[in-house]
Specification:
3-stranded antiparallel β-sheet; 29% strand; single chain; alpha+beta; globular
Amino acid sequence: MTQLDTAKIKIKPATKTAITLYHATTPKKMVRYHAEGRIIAPVRGFTTLQGAMAWACKTGRSVILEIDGEDCHKLPDNHNQWGEAWWADHDVTDWTCVLSPDKC
């Protein structure tokens, strides 16, 4: 290839994957999320509520939030039989509490 040929090659930008994730956290972290008005990136979560619940049981977390991830990437590990683990590469400012022993 000549320099002219390589200059004509256009590289496509990486596509962003937008998905709904379920984020497991603690009541203490929820207080911080409300105080700061956001969950600071990277925000990890599962593709299913059941996957997040299994992770919450394993890690001792009792709050599960539903978030919309706009620029998500699949994690290489931490998957379980109920869901895939992903992370959102942006701060999250809007969430819905789907499971909590107290109000979120």
